[in-house]
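Researcher: I've got a protein sequence and the SMILES for NAP. Could you write out the 3D structure of the bound complex as C-alpha cells? I'd like something to compare against our soaking experiments later this week.
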Amino acid sequence: MSAIEHLTQASYLAAAALFVFSLRWLSSPKTARQGVVAGVAGMSLAVFGTLLHPEIVSYTWIVVALVIGTVIGVPLSWVPLTAVPQRTALSHAFGGMAAGLVGTAKYMLWLQDGGLTSFRMFAIIVEVLLGYLTLTGSLMAAGKLQEVLPTRPITYKNQNIFNGLLMLVALASGAYLVWRPETWQLFPVVIVLSLAFGVLLVLPIGGADMPTVISLLNAYAGLAAVAMGFVLDNKLLIVAGALDGSSGFILSVIMCKAMNRSFSNVLFGAFGQVSATAAVGEAKAVKSATPQDVADILENASRVVVIPGYGMAVAQAQHRVRELYEQLAKRGIECRFAIHPVAGRMPGHMNVLLAEAEVPYTALAEMDDINPDMPQVDVAIVVGANDVVNPAARHDKSSPIFGMPIINADRAKTVIAIKRTMNPGFAGIDNELYSADNCLMAFGDAKAVLGDIVKAMSGESGIH
Amino acid sequence: MSAIEHLTQASYLAAAALFVFSLRWLSSPKTARQGVVAGVAGMSLAVFGTLLHPEIVSYTWIVVALVIGTVIGVPLSWVPLTAVPQRTALSHAFGGMAAGLVGTAKYMLWLQDGGLTSFRMFAIIVEVLLGYLTLTGSLMAAGKLQEVLPTRPITYKNQNIFNGLLMLVALASGAYLVWRPETWQLFPVVIVLSLAFGVLLVLPIGGADMPTVISLLNAYAGLAAVAMGFVLDNKLLIVAGALDGSSGFILSVIMCKAMNRSFSNVLFGAFGQVSATAAVGEAKAVKSATPQDVADILENASRVVVIPGYGMAVAQAQHRVRELYEQLAKRGIECRFAIHPVAGRMPGHMNVLLAEAEVPYTALAEMDDINPDMPQVDVAIVVGANDVVNPAARHDKSSPIFGMPIINADRAKTVIAIKRTMNPGFAGIDNELYSADNCLMAFGDAKAVLGDIVKAMSGESGIH
Amino acid sequence: MHTTLDLWSMLFVFMLATFVGFQVIQSVSRLLHTPLMSLTNAISAIAIVGSIIIAGEEKDTTSLILGCVAVAASMTNIVSGFLITDRMLKMFREKGRQQ
Amino acid sequence: MHTTLDLWSMLFVFMLATFVGFQVIQSVSRLLHTPLMSLTNAISAIAIVGSIIIAGEEKDTTSLILGCVAVAASMTNIVSGFLITDRMLKMFREKGRQQ
Ligand SMILES: NC(=O)c1ccc[n+]([C@@H]2O[C@H](COP(=O)([O-])OP(=O)(O)OC[C@H]3O[C@@H](n4cnc5c(N)ncnc54)[C@H](OP(=O)(O)O)[C@@H]3O)[C@@H](O)[C@H]2O)c1
Ligand SMILES: NC(=O)c1ccc[n+]([C@@H]2O[C@H](COP(=O)([O-])OP(=O)(O)OC[C@H]3O[C@@H](n4cnc5c(N)ncnc54)[C@H](OP(=O)(O)O)[C@@H]3O)[C@@H](O)[C@H]2O)c1
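Model: Sure. Here is the predicted complex with NAP in place.
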C-alpha cells in the first residue's frame, strides 16, 4: 500500500470520527453549530482523500459535476422553512439516485472484468434496490408535500397482493443474479421494479402522513450508503450510512410513539392509509372571545403557556407569537412555550419556527416537563394546535388517538384556542377541549388574531 | 475462507455485540444480571469459535489449562467484599500477564518464520510493554491493598529522573526492534524494563491511593488486549479491549473529579505521592453523645439521612446500619442513604456494602440528588465518613480538598458523627463539621456504636 | 480469502457504527430534530466518495456519465444540507434579540 | 497489501469500539461501579482467544508453555470475574428482605 493510499485511509478514519462528533454536538443548541463545522470538515477530508485516489485518470468531469452540484445546492438551501420537509425529501431522492447509479455502474464494470463475486453481487442488489426505491419514493413524498401531486391516499383493489407479487418478482430476480451474476438481462428488471416500488409504496399514503415516510426514507438512504460501502469495500461509507440509517429509524420511532402508532405499523403499515374516522358529534356549544377580551385576560394573568401547532406554521404566525411573548415579558408575566413532539408536520417543526422568530429556546419546554405545571397555569393559549391538546387521548378508549400523550391544556385555569373554524385537525376527530367550561375560542387566522391581540395589549401598555 | 472460518468470525461478531449489551445492561440494577448472562454468553461463543480454529492440533493442553484456570478462579470469586479491590488488582495482573506471554510467543514464532513486519513488531512491543507493566504494577497494588507490602509511599532521590531514563531505554529498544525485528537480544530487555516499570510506578504511591491506580491499570490491561488484537488481526479482541480500556479510563476520571484532582495528575502525577498536609489546628471543643442520646434524637426525627464512609467498611458496620434503617422504617421515619461517589476506597464501594446488607437500592441517593434536600433533614448520621462531608471543601481555599464536591451534612438540623477518634480521614485534614454547633460526636467503633443505638431503639420500641 | 476476511471487518464496522449511531442520535436534543434531519442528509451524501471514483476512473462512457450524475447529486446534498442546517441552527438563541 | 488494508479496518474498529465504550460506560449506574470493574475484568480476559491459538498450534515447546499459562490466567479471570459480578449483583434489590 503506497503512502498516498495510507493518506486516503487516514482521511477516511478522521472523517468518520468527525461525523460522529458532528452528530454528538447536536445534543445541545450551544454546541450544535460546532457540529456543522465538524460535518463540513469531515466531508472535505473525505472528498480530498478520495481525489488522491491513484485510479482517477482525469479530474475534468469530476470538477464539472461538483460545480453543477454546488450551483443546484446553494439555492436549494434558501427554501422557506415551511418547505423544509419537501427539501429533505428531494435530497433523499438525490441520495438514493447516487447510490443506485454507483451500484449500476459497478455492476457493469465488474460484469466486463469478471469481478462479480456473489458477495459483491448481493451487496449491489441491496444497494440498487434501496437506492432506486428511495429515489422514486422520495420524489412522490416531495410531490405530495409540495401539493404537486394529489395529497389524498390513492388506493385500488388488491393493492397489497399486487405489491406483494411485484416484491416477489424483484427478490427472485435479485436472488438469481446473486447465483448467476452474468445474467445481465435481469439487472434492468431489478432496477425498474425498485423504481416502481418506490412509487407504489408512497401512493396509498396521505400527504399528512409524509413526515413519517420521509424519516423512513432517510433510513433507507442511509442503508443504501452502507450497501455501497460493502460494494466498494469502504468503511467510511459504512459508518456514515449507519449513522444516517439510525437517525432516520429513531426519528420515525419517536414520531410513532408520540402518535401512539405501533412501530410495525411504520415499517410495513405506515404504508397504509390512516383511517380518518370523521366522527361528527353533536355540535356542542362553545364560547368565543374577541382579541380585546383575550388581551384583557392576559393582562391579569401571571403565568401563561403558549401551545403552538400546525396552524401556527400554516398561518406563519410565529412572529406574532414572539411579539405576544415580548408584550407579556414587558409586564413581568411569565410566558413559556409547550412543545409537543409531533406538533406540526415534522419532528422539531415548532422549535425551528419559533427559533426563526427569535424566541429564545430557553423559553421552550418539552411536554413531559410542562405537564405537571399545567394546573398552576393561568392562561393556556392554543395557537393552531388541535390533536396534541385533545383530552380524548387521555380518557376516550374509542378515540383513534387514545393513548397518545398530549399537552394538558385543559388543566390550565383558562384556555384560549385560536383557529379558523370548528374543523378537526390532522387526525380528523372532534376536540372536546373547545366546549369545555374554561375554554374560549378566538376564531380567525392565527396571524391576524394574534396581531389584534398584540395591538390591543400594546395600545394599553401605556395605561398599565 | 472455509465454512468453519466463517463460523468462527460469526461467533466473534456475536460475542462483540453481546459484550456491548452486557455493559449496557449495567445501566440499571434491574437489568444488570441479564448483563452478566450476556457477558458469559459472549465469552462462551468466543471460546467455542476459537476452538474451531483449524490450526489447533491438539486440545489436551488447552483443556488442562482451562481446568486449572477454573480451579483457581472459583475460589477467587468467594473473597469477602472488602477484598474486592485486591482481587480486581490480582485479576489485572493475570490479564496483563496473558497479554505479555502471547506477545512474547508470537514474537518468537514470527522470528522463526520471518513473519515480523514492522507493523506487527510495533503492535507486539505495545502489547508486551503494557502487558508486563500491568502485571507487576497490579501485583504491587494488590500487595499494598492486602498490606503484604508496606502501604506508605516509597520515594528516593531523583526518582523521576531515574524512571524517565529507564523509560527512554525501553522506548529506544522498542524503536530499534521495530526497525530491525531480528535483533532478538533486545526483546528480553524490553520485557525486563516493562516489568521493572510496573514496580517503579506503583512504589511511590500510598496504599490509600490504590483505587485510582487500579482503574488506570484496568485501562492499561484493556489497551494491552487491543494491542493483542492488532497483533493477531482479531477484531473481537480490539472491541473487548476498547470497552475495558474506556471503562478503566472513565472510572479513574470520575474518581479524580470527585476528589478534585486534575486528570493529568492521574495519567502522570497520580503516580506521585499525595501531600498529606497534616494541618493540626487548635483542638476545638466538640459535643459528644451516648448511643441512648442518639436513639432519643432519632425517635423525634421525621427525616433521617445516613452518610456512610470508609469507616463503615472498616468496621463492617453495614448490617447494623440496615438494622437502624429497619428501626426507623418501623416508626414511619423516612430514612435515606446519601452516597458520595468516592466514599470508601473504590467507586461504588458503599453501594455494594449496603446491598450486601440487604438495604434496598431505592433507598440510596446520589450526592447531587440529596444535597438540595439537606436543609429539610432532621438528623444526618455520618457513619465513618470524613472527607466527603468536610465543609472546608466548599469555602476554605487553602484546604487541599477545596473544590471537591461534598455531601452537605452540616446543613441538616442535627448532625451525628460516628467515628473512633478525632483523627483525620484519608486526606489528612481536620474537619470543622465536628465542632459545629449542630454536631454531636458518638465516639467508638461504628459497628459497636450503631449496635448500641439500635438496641436502645428496639428496647423502647414497645413503649413507643 | 482477502475479500471474505474483509467482509467480516465490514460487518464489525457496520455493527459498531450502528451502536454509535443509536446512542448518539438518542442524545440529540429534541429541539434540534429538524436540523438533525438535514445534517444527516448532508452526511449521507458521503456517497460522493464512491461516485468520484467511478467518474474519475473513466472506464467507459456509461460509467463516466453515471458517475458524474452521482457526483452532482451528492454534491447538491452536501451543499444544501450543510447550508440549511447552519441556517436553522443560527436561529437558535438562548436570549431573545437585542437582550 | 492485505495486512495494511486490514490495519485500517482495525483502526476503524478500534475507534468505533472506543466511542461505544465511552458512551456505554458513561451510562452505567453509579450504584454499580464496583460490579462494573469486575465485569470489564472478565470481559478483557477475551485474551483467552489469542492464548488458545498459541497453545493449540503447538509450534514449539516454549510457545506451548507460554500459551497454556496465558490460557490458565485468562480462564481464571473469566471464571472469577463473572462469578463475583453475579454475586454482587444478586445483592442489589429494590425492596429490603422479606418485604
Ligand atoms: N410533527 C410530526 O412529525 C408529525 C408527523 C406526522 C403526523 N403528525 C400529526 O400532525 C398532528 C399535529 O397536531 P397539531 O395539533 O400540531 O395540528 P392539527 O391537529 O393538525 O391541528 C392543526 C389546527 O390548526 C388549525 N389551523 C390551520 N390553519 C390555520 C390558520 N391559518 N390559522 C389558525 N389555525 C389554523 C386547524 O383548524 P382550522 O382549520 O379550524 O383553522 C387545525 O385544527 C398530530 O395529529 C400528529 O400526529 C405530526
Ligand atoms: N472511593 C474511591 O474510589 C476513592 C479512591 C481513592 C481515594 N478515595 C478517598 O477516600 C476518602 C473517602 O472519604 P470517606 O469520608 O469515605 O473516608 P475518610 O475521609 O477516609 O474517613 C474515614 C473515617 O472513618 C473513621 N473510621 C475508621 N475506622 C472506623 C471504625 N472502625 N469505626 C468508626 N469509624 C471509623 C476514621 O476516623 P477514626 O479513625 O477517628 O475512626 C476516618 O475519619 C476521600 O478522601 C477520597 O478522596 C476514595
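Model: The first helix of chain C runs from residue 2 to 26. Helices of chain C lie at 2-26, 33-44, 48-57, 61-90.
Researcher: Great, I'll pass this along to the crystallography team.
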